[in-house]
Specification:
This protein has 470 residues and is α/β, with parallel strands linked by helices. 25% of the residues lie in helices and 26% in strands. Helix 1 (12-22) runs parallel beside helix 7 and helix 7 runs antiparallel to helix 8 (333-354). The two termini are 28 Å apart.
Length: 470
Amino acid sequence: MDTDVLIVGAGPTGLTLGIDLARRGVAALVVERADGLFPGSRGKGLQPRTMEVLDDLGVLDAVLAVGGTYPVGMIWQDGRRVGEHHMFDADEAEGAPAQGAGVPYTGPWMVPQWRTQEILRARLEELGGRIVFGREVMGVAQDAQGVTVRCADGSALRARYAVAADGGRSALRRALGIGMTGETVDPKPALVADVRISGLDRDNWHLFPPRGEDGGFLAICPLAGTEDFQLTAQFPEDTVVDVSADAVRKVVAARSHLAAEEVTEVRWASEFRPRAALADRFRAGRVFLAGDAAHIHSPAGGQGLNTSVQDAYNLGWKLGAVLAGDAPEALLATYEEERRPVAAGVLGLSTRVHRGEVRRGTATTGQLGLGYRDSSLAAETRHTPGPVRAGDRAPDAVVDGVRLFDTFRGPHWTLLAPHRPAGLPAHVRQAPAPASYGTGLFLVRPDGYVGWAGDTEEGLVEYAKRVGLC
């Protein structure tokens, strides 16, 4: 074997998985078709749940240092400011970080995707992880022992498991013959670009309602922590969008009071057509799909990158446990069992946000309420379950002066109980359960979800054996 896990794609999904595996001592190799990391801002909003994941992975301070909150929208007409537009519900107005009720981060935190990837790459390499650029995947074969991935340069890579994290046009997914089912969210194509503009302030998200013959809107958002703006412009159906620098400047001049020359630089530009699609399967043998390779979202509501990061977070601890010989291979079946229904639900949400049927807000798009109550890994044994149940996200709290998220941080399980039951291994951390969880004992998974909850310790060790803890 060249490595234990081969991760195809060095986007947020692949880098997150690489970090999670590296901190568990798993040999993993990330291969990327391009010669470097993705250069654009595209997925710029990190949701509260993703901030918690990044905290656990050891990169939150870096993310907070380079990001910022979302500005209020400013509507322009004929060169005049005519009103404000609040993109988010009031519960997201202050952005992250914040405090209260087990939710340490509230609202989206803006960081351009290219910068998020730089931070993740630095953390991966700090942990000893590797990325190989310029390696395009062409085919895949499997046997009982592992996976062989063929590359365009004639080389082949051998691993015990492989993960397709190579985007919506995933070469690895196509090589596996896994289809995607979906719909066009909006038939109108859009241009997205990272630009520098001399004639706009950076205090607002500038909105220019449709005018002129093409009838398309223009939005220009200052990207926190940079000198750049993200430009988004919509076009009529069947338009072939020109992404050249001159075309970007012409769009700005036609749809706003700005002159073309006030766009001083076009750093990156791309066309996209909003659609929603879900892979028919998230697994084929020893190969798993994660991120955009498994689900494609409308950009509305900032769900795509966040759902993708959490795919990796769910898969990482399971691969680590199986590869270490601590858990049965059957544990890997719970990845698709848990993540595919979540992805399907989030796809529906992002589509409704795009169509204006749902408002953005921590309660709707923050992803804090997503969980796995119906999973085979969720064992709720209490006679009267409290507000936090098996399968739920384990909220933050302070108990006896100790913050739970500090206790959770790391690749381990945590028992919330007044004392440590016999038979539980030493590497399981232990802390008192907070009153906010309700009565009982709680065994929290490495990805921050409650696996088992009980009135007493009866059944706890049996569950621990089932998931490979004992």
